[in-house]
Amino acid sequence: MKNIWEQAWLSYPELSDKTEQELFSSVGTNAGERIEEDKNMTGHANDMVGHAMEEICLAAEKLYGITCEKKDGTEEASLRLILEENDNLGEEGFTVTEAGKILTIRAWKPAGLLYGAFYVILCAARGERLTGIEKKEVPCKKLRMLNHWDNPDGSIERGYSGNSFFFEEGKLIINDRTKDYFRLLASAGINAIVINNVNVKAECISLIAEPFYAKLKELTELAAGYAVKVYICADFAAPIVLGGLETADPLEPVVREWWKKTVAALYEHVPLLGGFLVKADSEGRPGPFAYGRNHADGANMLGEALEPVGGIVIWRCFVYNCEQDWRDQTVDRARAAYDNFMPMDGAFRDNVLLQIKNGPIDFQVREPVHPLFGSLKSTRQLLELQIAQEYTGQQRHVFFLVPMWKEIMDFHTCAGKDFDTVKECVEGMAGVSNTGDDPNWTGHDLAGANLYGYGRLCWNPSLSAEQIAEEWIRLALTRETEAVGAVKEILMTSPVAYEEYTAPLGVGFMVTPHDHYGPSVDGYEYDRWGTYHRANHEKIGIDRTTATGTGYAGLYFGENKEKYEDVSLCPDELLLFFHRVPYSHVLHSGETVLQHIYNTHFHGVELVDHLYELWLSVENKVPEEIFKRTKERLEHQKMHSREWRDQINTYFWRMTMIPDEGGRKIYE
Ligand code: GCV
Question: Which of 114, 125, 274, 279 could form a disulfide with 231 if both were Cys (CB 3.0 to 4.6 A apart)?
């Protein structure tokens, strides 16, 4: 593991304007007494308040160059952390007020004080005023989780920023970097992590057992001090692999007993554990199908074992047939999760949540929103997003994901009251983490905006993408107005550019098989994974309509269904996802499909050139190392976007022999 790391958005560069430094001159709290009085407070309440104080002192030193004095009690302090009865604020909310040069953070629970402390620190660090502030913040969603796809050997599945900082040589690692990671998470409002890959590998199968008890206990305790709950991925076949049983059948009493005993022993040693995340019957993972059982049987068995210890089961809906025959046009991967889970709506125990990817395929740059949102009405749900840029440039291309996530969360399912937007349907989010042991945590420095932005958006989905971008830039890169504007333009333009020069009109998956980086138009076309575009010399796209296609479009409600079923109403950006059309089909934009492909691919590359120029303009205005690293990545992106443009354009030119109306260079 690399042992150098930076502080990302918690670097707190010194402020030139010190007007408000007095607010940070001393800090005091009443939390000690309150925590002692309140029998319900967890053992880590004191740690959270201690960390809030520690962070305030660190920020005072770095932002203002002053020592913040710790006072006994609150009366003498300029910054006051007050715990008081106020259930309006919930477990995590807080208020911040300033009057008479006293800055007061109030919360009902210690986590609120920790979040409040980071709130004021980050405001100050961005160069914003705290004088006269009156603010109340309560997170919109209870579960704001990261999923790490880290393996025990230190590798990370779809990791683009080095190796794991959780695992090395089969062991769980806990060091100063772990603590800094929890600081980063708490400062962005993230309150849960799953530490190992959903494809549970090697030693990680034993995470539920004795070999990991001690380390897991230490990790959960450290995390709890930053209001973070730790979860692990469990292997459905563990009763066989670890327990030596002959079956993992969820309805077999001996299997249920095994899980109950295993979970009870685990929680006796690791009482702060949050629960399990499970990938079952998906891409070769074991699951209930092997025993003729369904996913409710599987999830409920684990739910039953976790209930006495207050744990939860998060069960993934990414279940599809990955042994498809490309010749068979009746099987549609997009339908799979819906067909598997919809019949079980209402059949899951109370401590089971279904985790649903944002779209029906797999984190493509453009997909419709998953039809399970709005359809499931009696099942607890989480929205799964991918912060790791598997299909969006692998942290070598810049791609600010927040605008896409906002579109997804704000999508109207048209499913009726309480289930209208996706953000109303879910209890929280799970984001596949983009972190690793690279010094800057995220490989591409600008991918830091995605990690920070993910947390902020889970906390408050009504924040705008621009606002989140600006917050992050001011914390991590620069407070200089012009440079902030330039980087903001880079971030906000990046998803448009990427979508333009890669797979067109919602068709997706024109990527190199397996590593999923770079163009390969037919890479998956005759493969078993169920991701096809079916382009020939006349037509392209998949007919997913009810009348003549796979019927997938009919899984939506109201006007969504009308739009997706009807080729004349279907939004351009999703046309080829839902319909099979000739290249001469005219889009709402007025262009033909083919001309759109040519135009966007030329334009996408021009946008990347523009992003590069914008980045050059911030030289000497952002930290030098970051400038250099990002410049290199943008240079690669310039080259690689041309590769995309030329492979896609040439493919369709060869396929159609229809020239570009603009007469631009398309290779033979
Ligand atoms: C962790 C895609 C990825 C896999 C990933 C899987 C999943 O297929 O390519 O690496 O496995 O999604 O989400 O389970």
Answer: 274
| Length in residues, the chain | 668
With vertex at residue 47, the alpha carbon angle to CA 44 and CA 48, rounded to the nearest 5 degrees, is 90
**pLDDT one-digit tens code per residue, 152-203:** 999 999 999 999 999 999 999 999 999 999 999 999 999 999 999 999 999 9
pTM of model > 0.85:
yes
Question: What is the spatial distance between Cα 607 and Cα 613, in angstroms, rounded to a whole number?
Answer: 10
Question: Are the C-beta atoms of 81 and 53 separated by less than 8 Å?
Answer: yes
Please name which of 243, 337, 253, 358 lies closest in space to residue 295, comparing C-alpha atoms.
Answer: 337
- Nearest residue by C-alpha to atom 11 in ligand 1: 199
Instruction: Note the helical H segments in 189-314.
Output: 213-224, 238-241, 253-269, 295-306
> What single letter denotes the amino acid at residue 30?
N
Q: Which helix (H) or strand (E) covers residue 409, if one does?
A: helix 402-410
Cα 148 to ligand 1 centroid, rounded to whole Å: 12
The closest-lying atom of ligand 1 relative to the alpha carbon of residue 149 is: 1
For residue range 265-279, what is the model confidence (pLDDT) as tens digits? Answer: 999 999 999 999 999
Paired tokens of 96: 């911040």
Ligand 1 centroid distance, CA of 404 (Å): 20
90: left (phi over 0), alpha (psi -120 to 50) or beta: left
- Which residues belong to the active site? 283, 362, 390
42 touches ligand 1 (CB under 6 Å): no
Residue 418 has pLDDT above 90, yes or no: no
- 3-class SS at 375? coil
C-alpha 524/C-alpha 515 separation (Å) is 12
**Hunting for tokens 């443009």 — which residue is that?**
645
HSE-CB for 497 with a 13 A CA cutoff: 25
Residue 488, ligand 1, Cβ within 6 A: no
The alpha carbon of 620 and the centre of ligand 1 are apart by a number of angstroms equal to: 40
Measured from the CB, is residue 198 less than 6 Å from ligand 1?
yes
Site to probe by mutation for ligand 1, drawn from 150, 283, 357, 367 as the one with most ligand atoms within 8 Å of Cβ, is: 283
User: From the CB of 148, is ligand 1 less than 6 Å away?
Assistant: no
For residue range 39-71, what is the model confidence (pLDDT) as tens digits?
Answer: 777 669 999 999 999 999 999 999 999 999 999
Give the H/E segment covering residue 380: strand 380-386
Ligand 1 geometric centre to CA of 157 (Å): 8
529 lines ligand 1 (CB under 6 A): no
Specify the pLDDT at position 42.
67
CA distance 73 to 20: 22
Question: Which residue, by CA, sits nearest to atom 8 of ligand 1?
Answer: 362
Indicate whether residue 157 lines ligand 1 (CB < 6 A). Answer: yes
pLDDT for the residue 87: 84
**The amino acid at 337:** A
> Which residue's structure tokens are 């890479």?
523
The phi, psi pair for 162, rounded to 5°, reads 95, -160
Strands (DSSP E) contained in 417-563 are 428-432, 539-540
| Cα–Cα distance for residue pair 426/381, rounded to 1 Å | 5
Which ligand 1 atom sits nearest the alpha carbon of residue 432?
Answer: 13
Q: Which of 441, 461, 459, 460 is nearest to 451 (CA)?
A: 441
> Within its chain, how far is the Cα of 35 from the centroid?
33
Q: Residue 175 class from Cβ within 10 Å (0-12 exposed, 13-18 middle, 19+ buried)?
A: exposed
* Backbone dihedral angles phi then psi of residue 290, each to the nearest 5 degrees: -60, -20
Distance 335 CA to ligand 1 centre (A): 17
| Furthest C-alpha separation in the chain | 79
Cα separation, 526 vs 27, in Å, equals 64
Distance CA 271, CA 306 (A): 11
